[in-house]
Amino acid sequence: MKKGQKLPYAEKNFSLWLVGAAAMHVFVLFLAVSFQLWDAGRHPKPKIVTVTLVSLPGSGASREYSDHEGAAGAVVAPAQAAPPPPVSKKSVKEPVPVPEKSPVIPKKIAVEPLKPKVVEKKPDINQALLRLKQNVDKKTAQLPKPSTTNLSNALDQLQQKVKSAGEGSGTGSGRGQASSSAGRNGVGRGSGGGGTADSYKVKIASIIQQNWAFSKQLLKNSYGMEVYVRINIVADGTIRQILYDKKAPSEYLNNSVKKALEKSSPLPLLPKEASGGDVWIGFVFTPEGIE
Amino acid sequence: MLDSRLGILGLLSDAGVVVLMVLSVLLSFSIISWAIIAYKFGYLRKSLRESKAFLDYFFEVHNIDKVFTESENFRHGSLPRVFRSGYIEYRALGDKGDIRLARARIARAVKREVNAENKRLSALVPFLATVGNTAPFIGLFGTVWGIMNSFHTIGLTQSASLAAVAPGISEALIATAAGLAAAIPAVIAYNSFTHKIGVIERDLEEFSPEFVAAFINEP
User: Fold this and answer.
1) Is position A237 within any domain?
2) Domain residues of chain B, as ranges?
3) ipTM of the complex as predicted
4) Count: domains in chain A
5) How far is A183 from chain B, CA to nearest CA, in Å?
6) pTM over 0.80, yes/no
């Protein structure tokens, strides 16, 4: 009887302690979370300072060295960082002494394809665009303004040339034809290159898409999942360099892009119009596909 | 960035079902352990303190009626309880002429109360031992499961970079940490309580015959 009276008291006492222990655990958890938040606030993440290396003209750096860096996309970062289609980079790349390497590379690639070098670049695109605009403005300001007299002179000269060419072809032979064909060649290269490059781009995009092993379901969040990447393709279709303009927050997406590009190399041969050097082509990889 | 800010909550929200189950089991173990620790700590402390004070009084005063009256002030002590049960049995004896029979009956009543007191003292304490032994293994199970899942994901993503591997392992290791957090206090408390209970039990064994003799030899 006595025990019967005591047990409920002991049980009640224990229940109180149980509630107290649960409250203590909640309190400890709350303390831990608030301490983490407080600690995170006390040590804010340092701001990222972007430092761009610039090679000054006439400095100690050799031309070869600067060219090499230009190929890697580090020194001329402001000019190259612009997001527009990288085919235009070709004009920037022209001074690179490619012909020395190009005869050697195809031999190697026939046996073992070159592994593309991946260069990660910080996303300072806006800054680079601003600099580019400033440079262009300066250059245009320095150029002499074309006067109306110069223009009319040029038109006169052109008319005279056309007349003389007509006379040449009428009277005789190869001289006139030779000059006109040279002219046609020049035009053809400039305008036709874009068309072939577009079809070539579509072609390699489909190849890369086929080699791209990626599952959208493995991404927890698809917000901001875009990879801006540029590839440098040499004449034989080998991807020489992969350049990330913008990386996605997911390492999985970034790695899958890299693997897809590595797997796709060597790509089909560059079109003849683009021969004589390498080509930069840019792609945007999203979970939905390649743009 | 957001996850790293949230810390513990971020890890919990990303954890799998099995790891969450393991964590909830460990949390309940921890809550019950701490409740037992707090309850037993007060109970044993009071018992030890009152038993000591009662023994001092018992050896000072030789009148068992007075001792019994005083023992009512020590409701939580083990020795006063045993004394009271012996005294009740002694007073319930009708014929006190047969000393041998009286001694046997009182001794039986005292022994019964000692047994009851031993059970009362050691109640809930084995749970602490269970938590101390099993919680690390339960936590380890959660960790192993989490790492298994992590490796599975690595296989699917085909990426073994640190960014892909580390979050999964970090989520998995929280189970081991929780297991250790539940087990360590339980083991410490278990050792402390076992020692205190041993001290009280020795007192009960040593002083029970003294109580019986005091009743029999009462003038």
Assistant:
1) yes
2) 15-216
3) 0.78
4) 1
5) 53
6) no
